[in-house]
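Hi L.,

As promised, Amidohydrolase-related domain-containing protein:
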Amino acid sequence: MNNFVVENVRVFTGAGLSVPTSVAVVDGRIAGMPLPDMASIDGCGAALLPGLIDTHVHVHNRRQLMAYGRWGVTTVLDMGTANWPATDDLRRESMVADLKSAGNVACAVNGRAVRKMHFPSSSAVSGPADAARFVADRAAQGVDYIKIVLEEKLPFQPKPLDTRTVEAVVAEAHKAGFRVCVHAASVKSFKIASDAGADVLTHAPLASALDGSQARDIAQRGHAVSPTLVMMKKLVERFPAPIKPKRITYQNVVQSVQALHRAGATILVGTDANSDPTAPNTIEHGASLHEELELLVQAGLSPVEALNGATQTAADVFGLTDRGRISPGQRADMLLVEGDPTTDILATQNIKQVWIAGEVVR
């Protein structure tokens, strides 16, 4: 493990950039003081950020984890995998982005995850009485959190999960010590997930926007939202059906984010990056997180707020206590960029160097 000090860098503090300072790394962790005779790296006045966290991905191989590292995304949160053994192996890979995963998702009987995306039949939760079984299965797998998929009620499609079943899965998950993330893409599913007490609502409404009252309710209840703007925008532009209903617009998504932002809700950075041919759309691994940051700023977040949603706020929401900040004791997951991303979010793309647990990403 390399021990070194990065000198003459402006550190992202969560509120802005510090004055030029030095950051020491010892045994893969950020140290309070440099050791004698440590190797020195001149940061040349660049901005040093905590490694970025993508709060919604679907990863299938090591190559994708390497892509994240090259783009300064050092932690990725997988939101459901049909192949748990392969994903579990990837969680143990080194020198690539650190992977956390929900494992198999909870869905309705004959839900799309089982019907089209090759998830095992055990992903289907048949009713409230089946919730304990589903959560126990995930605990036995050793997942990091629980994911529930709320689908919309559509003609000639299987019945989605009902409210009582969602409430039961959330309650059982919380009893077992898991956080719960819910796929929600409508105002109705946002309300169901919120009323059930989910911790994270992922995606944003497409057919209509959240109003101020619902946004305030989400904020007051302490839910976090990962709107995955890059995916929602692409869904509107390349709707996965022959005819796109007129009510489905990207403006609904933006207005929902704006309402949540005005209400003071916690907004995270997630992309829904995937290369799954069964998914509605594919999204590039790694690079898309920088596009997500840009879209969030366009929707009204300040660059500092967007950066927090991909660093310390994301770490806090998911209980990742060892990352998300440049401070002593934290993992030395770091991203060095040219420019000032706290005033120009596009500066996150001017990457000079990335470290994962103190090791340089080549």
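The longest helix spans residues 250-263.

Thanks again for sending the construct details.

K.
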